[in-house]
Amino acid sequence: xxxESGQGIELFRLSGVAVxxxxxxxxxxxxxxxxxxxxxxxxxxxxxxxxSYWIVGLIATLLFFASVLIHELSHxxxxxxxxxxxxxxxxxxxxxxxxxxxxxxxxxxxFKVAGAGPLTSLILGGVFWGVQQAIPSAPAFTLxxxxxxxxAYINVALALFNLLPGFPLDGGRLLxxxxxxxxxxxxxATSRAADWGQGIAxxxxxxxxxxxxxxxxxxxxxxxxxxxxxxxxxLSSYQHLFVDRMLSRMRVRDIMVTDxxxxxxxxxxxxxxxxxxxxxxxGGFPVVSExxxxxxxxxxxxxxxxxxxxxxxxxGDIMRRMDGSIAIADTASxxxxxxxxxxxxxxxxxxxxxxxxxxxxxxxxxxxxVQMRMVLGGEPAVxxxx
Length: 386
Ligand SMILES: [Zn+2]
What we know:
alpha+beta; 11 strands; 4-stranded mixed beta sheet
């Protein structure tokens, strides 16, 4: 499984890839350890000391999580080899998550990166099966044989589960790459694969409910959790892509506020507050002197100016001075505008047509537009960039 998630605790780095664990992972580790040491091994192989079960249980758990990690690392290494940046892996509640910096470039790249994980798990399954075959069948080795047989099964199960054709599981990514290759549209492919992801998620939830009624409470809850998780991941990955593409296709000039109200630098701060901020309700204004834009005054600068100084200090003293960090060309993409706002730590940018102030673009305005597009559905009518 690949996707995005929170930060977690960083464990180590390997070939430029940081490996981290999410806090949820500690709970899963404890549950798997307990399930193996107090359930699986004693049930299937009775007659050993309790301490023996916990020792093999711990080793099996560690190797299981190492297997998940190797699965994720294989995605990351293949991605990095093919020129995609993966700099971090987070081991998460249902296995692992490799963080890609963006969407893949080509269907073939996506196919190889997605396929690497299940293939690696199958190979690991084969290796563990070979190890358990090599262990003698004498009673003294029974538990050790059992550990490696379990690891062989679990790796094959990991491969098969991840091959389910629902995005964002690996199988869903393979499906997406295939549809993308056939249709040439990444958006359509993602939408289709994410629908499959939701369908499979509902299937898992239904199966989980059935298991609970059949008496297998823990296994059933497990399936329901995985189903819910997959459902939300499928939904959010599609929305993410949709918004991402929409923002990089739209130009700043198509969404900016034209003819914004401007301030002059000699206005006092309290005049600006009373006559502009409070009166008009906007969060910021371009500052213009002799027909040229010289800065931007937004709420943060005003609130940083002590109240007792506002009657004497002037807009020109406290504004953000005009430079490249608070301005953007009207031909730039909306995605670029958002990046610049984040870098400059501002909620609005001056939109420039050469030297001329063409308008103002705000983060809240973009958010409103995105929301409207999501509600109305469909895609902006701009030629496909893929
Ligand atoms: Zn995977």
